[in-house]
Amino acid sequence: MTQAHAQRADPLPDTKTPLLRWEGLSVPLPTGADRPFAVEGLSLELNRNEVLCLVGESGSGKSVTALATMGLLKGEMSRTAGAIHFGGQDLTSLTPDARRTLTGAQLSMVFQEPIASLNPFYTAGAQVSETIRTHSAASKAEVYDKVLSLFDEVRLPNPAQIYRAYPHELSGGQCQRVMIASALALDPAVLIADEPTTALDVTTQAQILNLMLALRDNHETGILFITHDFGVVSEIADRVAVMRHGELVEVGLREQILTDPQHEYTKALLAAVPKLAPRAARPVTGDPVLEVGGLSKTYRSGGFLSRSRREVKAVTDANLDIRRGETLGVVGESGSGKTTLSQCIIRMVEPSEGQVQIAGQDFLALHGADLRAARRRVQIIFQDPYTSLDPRQKIGDAIAEGPVIHGTSVGEATQLSHDLLAAVGLDPSAAERYPHEFSGGQRQRICIARALALQPDLLIADESVSALDVSVQAQILKLLSDIQEERGFAMLFVTHDLRVASQVCDRICVMQQGRIVETGAPDQLFANAQQDYTRTLLAAVPGATRVFG
Amino acid sequence: MEFWFARSVRMAFTLFVVVTLTFVVLRTSYDPVVAMLGPDATNREIELFRVRWNLDKSLIEQYITYVGNALRGDFGNSFQDGRPVFEVIAERFPFTLWLGGVSYLFAIAVGVPAGIIAALYRGSIFDRAIMVVSVVGFALPNFFLGILMILLFALVWQVLPSSGASSWAHVIMPAFALGLTLAGILARFTRSAMLEVLSKTYMLAAEAKGIAPARRAIFHALPNAALSVVTIMGLILGNLVAGTVVVETVFAWPGIGRLLISAISSKDLAVVQALVFVIAAAMVVINLAVDLSYRLLDPRTRKSS
């Protein structure tokens, strides 16, 4: 190999040999799974100085590919077939000890949930130092200096302070920077990033993506970047590989995949990406359903026997109204107060002050039985369809439970649950089955049916499509808008995803630090935002300027 | 400072509630006079006994006197031999501390490593064997285990003494009878705490850093699992106290457990009250120790500011 290189005039001979090459990699699934292989016959190359985006929907085998490459698979899944070539060796044929000398040093990985990937017991600095000490014999002082310079490189403010901080004292973005610093500690040839920005806010995401690009340029790192978000792909990828059901369906340069996809599946995926196509507000003439005035929520901590009292203003002076048939979006970054606001409206959290009128009724003045009766007017659909259904309750019972509590006869409620299941695109026979038999998208349909069973005037969707794959997300959004068209309820749509908000909302409230800083129709807001914060938020949307599909 | 102040107030309040409750329950459920003097006592004798032990006053007066004396450290005298209660307890306490300490250390030394190993080799024969033994450990009543051991080791093989507390050989059987249950409980909780920690993303991240398995288990998983294990270690001390009462009786061990039984059966109220207080105080101190160890173990509670 060396000889062959020496004969060539190429200034960067190594760029011709792939850094990492998967050759017919197959990963078996445990018996009883829905398919025999998590990954089947994957052949792919990652080059030096390249960001290769691995995209696909949940269950496509992206993460398993990453774990297989790092040697982190357990049990039956660790019995992989095929080869992973790196530096003249087949990683899969190395002994665990030999492989461990490469893992974390030559090949490193960053995970999806930054806060959960750091050990709560140790400081950020100790965890990065550990990576270095595991693979080198550097002295304590050298390691300390190295960690500080890494923190500096990943643009963490005040490295010495971050070094001593525990994970719970850092934000999600800071934790991810610490993880990236740890991954870079030994200047790895390959960096695998598994959805590293999915759990982060858009503005933080934009910074992390820039950081990744800088790494590629400064260290010639080959980066395998796993994502489900084509906006991110359009910002960061050099090449794109598309996976489906464990198989590679298409691989190509970014522009080719995004503008001229060959495979039907890639086309369908791109078509499902929510367009950043801000719509105009629909002319809404219905009666006001929700009127919120001067709503605030202040959390107080400390109290009896404790002298340190703290106040956190989660929501300050929020004013909004929604009419029948209208959709109002609430967008903002994590901690902006959008969930607290929606929970105050339905009194899952008691507001500290302000008014909430629902269908002309003073909602905050209600108590006991009156409050319970009024609650049927407002229903909520949560983010995680996996935890918001009782695993031991049949679907039909889950839907019928609300109407029965509010006085409908069991026979009528059962009929209603069948009708609603049909309305959300499921077979009425689903009523007799349990939640675990359904996919995430199907479960979210069930949650929608359950919320609609009480014929609410106001439907609150709190990040209701955020956990779903784009193709499923598109279906659920269409379902919501069709049903709204038909039944005319008002909808409060809470989301962090500006693409989704721009499509479904008539008006959008932008929240920052507990305050609604700007409200407007999507087309006005996107074309002519009045607040700097709104502009920052819009600019940070990955692939903002691109139209997919 | 604030922490200590709040804790002291709460501890004092707990002990006050214990003192009051035991006083009310004991004084309203027994007439110690009948128990102490027997059915043949004359009225004159009964009268004298009542005056001597302040039993002629109203319950409220007795309570105020009792609490007042207790605050000065005087828990009264034993009805039986008239000695100060604390003198009676003090000569028994070291024996219980000895037995309890040995059983507790045994439980930790056996239970915690067994739980860790079971978790690390989940599903293996090792794991299953440890779990079976731990079920047997806490399903077997310790008096039964004690009697079984006396039968085998003291009567059949005659290798260990069956009762008394005069040498280290004497402590083996009672400590084992007492500790096995606790070890079983600890092993199960340690195992589940470890399993939970092992499934965390940071454990995967540690593996992705190239850290060797043993180091991951000891330095990454264990400190995090320790939090729940320490909680259980505090809770099983309650079982330990309850267990000493039974085991000390089976092995004729001269500790406070046996003292409690004999005081209750002879209706020696002052001794029972003081013993309940001592046990409660021990539990409160143990709880404090557990909470303090949280602050050491969990950086999230260390800096509350």
Description:
The complex is a heterodimer of chains A (549) and B (305). Chain A has 549 residues and is an alpha/beta fold. Chain A has 20 helices and 20 strands. Chain A has helices at residues 2-7, 62-70, 96-102, 124-135, 140-153, 159-164, 172-184, 202-219, 230-236, 254-259, 264-272, 338-345, 368-375, 395-405, 410-423, 440-452, 470-487, 498-504, 522-527, 532-539; strands at 20-28, 37-46, 50-55, 81-86, 89-90, 107-110, 190-194, 222-227, 239-244, 247-253, 288-301, 310-323, 327-331, 353-358, 361-362, 378-381, 458-462, 490-495, 507-512, 515-520. Chain A is globular and about 70 Å long. Chain A starts with a helix and ends in a 10-residue tail after the last helix. Residues 1-13 of chain A have low confidence and may be disordered. Chain B is mainly alpha-helical. Chain B is built from 13 helices and no strands. The longest helix of chain B is centred in the C-terminal third of the chain and has 38 residues, at 213-250. The two termini of chain B are 13 Å apart. Classes of the chains: A alpha/beta (549), B mainly alpha (305). The interface between A and B is medium-sized, with 32 and 26 residues.
Helix content of chain A: 25-40%
Mean pLDDT of chain A: 89
Q: Strand share of the residues of chain B? A: under 5%
> Outline of chain B, from the CA principal axes?
flat
Order of helices and strands of chain B: HHHHHHHHHHHHH
The number of distinct helices of chain A, counting runs of at least 4 residues, comes to 20
Q: Which blocks of ≥5 consecutive residues of chain B have pLDDT under 50?
A: none
In spatial order, strands of the major sheet of chain A run 6-7-8-3-9-10
The oligomerization state is heterodimer
Radius of gyration of chain B: 24 Å
